[in-house]
Amino acid sequence: MPSNLALNTLKTTNHTANKTKWTVAKSTELYGLNRWGEKYFSINSKGNIDIRITEKQNQYLDLFELVKELEGRNLKLPLLIRLDDILEDRLKELHKTFEKAIKNYNYKGIYQGVYPIKCNQQRHVVEELITCGQEWNFGLEAGSKTELLIALSLIEDPKALLICNGYKDQKYIETTILARQLGRQPVVVIEQVDEVERIITSSKKLGAAPLIGIRAKLSSRSSGRWGNSVGEKSKFGLSIPEILEAVEKLRAADLLKELKLLHFHVGSQINDIGILKDSLQEAGQIYVELHALGAPMSHLDVGGGLGIDYDGSRTATIASTNYSLQNYANDVVATIQECCEAKNISMPTLISESGRAIASHFSILIFNILGQSAIPSDFPMAKENECQVIKNLRATLKDIQKISKTPLIDISKLQESWNDALKFKEDALAAFRLGYLNLTERGIAEQLTLACAESLIERLPNNRLIPEELKTLKATLARTYYANMSVFRSAPDTWAIEQLFPIMPIHRLDEKPNYLGNFADLTCDSDGKLSKFIDHGKTKPLLELHELKDNEAYLIGMFLGGAYQEVMGNLHNLFGSTNAAHIRLTKDGGYTVEHVVKGNTKSDVLKAMEHDPELLLERVRIASELAIQKGELKISDAQRLLEHLETSLRESTYLQE
Ligand SMILES: *Cc1c(COP(=O)(O)O)cnc(C)c1O
Fewest beta carbons less than 10 Å away: which of 46, 142, 622, 637? Predict the structure, then answer.
């Protein structure tokens, strides 16, 4: 990026001046860290993000320094940092919250959760949750035969539940019956009408029955993104007539005695607690009615949907929720209690299948910035017979530079100058289209317009109302930051469903971020970008970012992405999985790297697409032999080419410094 020495010095002085005024508290507010970071994230006096795990012990871990040290262990960026302590803490919080609600309402029953494997199937994650969840007999939810295999092999606790959802064929059902004999507690949740017949056949065949649940299709609708997965048109669950039919069929087959659980699932990320309340009331009544029909009901499973406040605005908007964990637990406990008390039946064990709420916080994606797009600021000096529009722009810039920087500045004057600059820029474009301006002149015109914007920004007072037009000044100077990552691999929901995650620099937070920018990823896809950021219940297209420094990495963190992103990610442009490190804090204030999961190499992703890396290399070798024979390529260069390709195959799919 060409740059002019004089201008550069000017910026550095500016930047030091800003540094004295800027505080980490301002960064905390700007990026909303105090709102979405829960108790886990804060900014330390060095301007780096701190991770805090145990509130009592005041143990902190400097995220920036951690990344530096991991890089020292050859764990190159982009890097997923998984904080197992946070995963554990979220699980504890969930249980503590339900325990509190149960105690407060004097609910005569317990809460016994399960983890929906689909949320993050990584072995270390599932294992960690099982180990840590033992004290509450925490179980698993499987949505497919493959997940069932994971659940069966990992759960050893005979009291832990294994909720079996998803499409079920004969073998799936038989497996659950056999697993019950193995001493596990699998519950086959009937989601489709024809599964009833399959349960009856399997039970006859094996001379034993599974534990049975029924998923109800509730009529209460969700307003959220997954609104279609509930209500009468949803893909899963039984309508009321179907439930009644299933009950009679089970009764006839002498299996009604195994129907113990009612299940519903409103959809992921419920934004509005009102929707949950309606669903709970409806489900509570169905539960009571099933009991009246003679089923020995004992469990009520409220499914997933417990949301995460991604932007910390505590609103019923897409990236937020208008309720807390405690509100959620209270509503579940109180509503079900009310339904059961009214009919004088015993209270069910309450189950939730909370995936997002458990797994979001523990994982942070760190990526580095490879460079930025910026229009070079060194434009040529004025020449004698320059065209009029350029002269006009130069004069405007000079006028702006003459305005002295004072808090009492006449804002209307700034606005007038900006209007002039924009008008002259339009003129320049028109002149170019008509052939009166050449490419060099158009370039100068654009540079001058930006120089005007920069000079104006320097003069905007901080403490006064700024007119709308002048607020767009910074956006005019917005930059694209090139991110060493693939959105499709590491943040697919940002692209697929416009999910928002908090994104911010993990260091330099004691410096004022002087630029607005967005991120372009490594893929060649124009959708490969991050250009929507959290903004107090709304979104903004540009994020406040810092000027890149020579020879110093600029590291960005994407937070709250522990749920769904990794598994939904794909190999677009053949960017593979990133490196991942599982970190655990030690008592003495340090940390250990518990596991390292190496990201895909280029060879891995080629094989995933059925290419044979050896064969690919061999073809290039043959081509280079031909070129050597024709005298077009030197032997040493051919060797270099092959060496590059060979090493590259063993390396990560991302760019390395
Ligand atoms: C996806 C899913 C979940 C998990 O939902 P979260 O919103 O992540 O808690 C739970 N139960 C069922 C049936 C699901 O399909």
Answer: 622
Asked if residue 238 is part of any domain, the answer here is yes
Find out whether the peptide bond into 502 is cis, omega within 30 degrees of 0: no
Give the span between the Cα atoms of 464 and 565, in whole angstroms: 42
Distance between start and end Cα atoms, the chain: 17
What pLDDT is recorded for position 508?
98
**Tokens describing residue 77:** 């960026």
In the predicted model, is pLDDT for residue 473 greater than 90?
no
Tokens read off for 338: 């009310």
For residue 620, give the nearest of 643, 599, 597 by alpha carbon: 643
Q: Is 237 in the pocket of ligand 1 (CB under 6 A)?
A: no
Same domain, 162 and 266: yes
Q: How confident is the model at residue 10 (pLDDT cuts 50, 70, 90)?
A: very low
232 pLDDT band (50/70/90 cuts)? low
Q: For residue 100, is it within any domain? A: no
Structural domains of the chain, count: 4
Two tokens at 92? Answer: 């504890």
Residue 265 Cβ < 6 Å to ligand 1: yes
Question: Where in the sequence is the domain holding 229, given as residue range(s)?
Answer: 105-359
Summarize the confidence of residues 212-231 as an average pLDDT: 71
Q: Which atom of ligand 1 lies nearest, measured to the CA of 563?
A: 8
Asked if residue 299 has its Cβ within 6 Å of ligand 1, the reply is no
pLDDT at 230 over 80: no
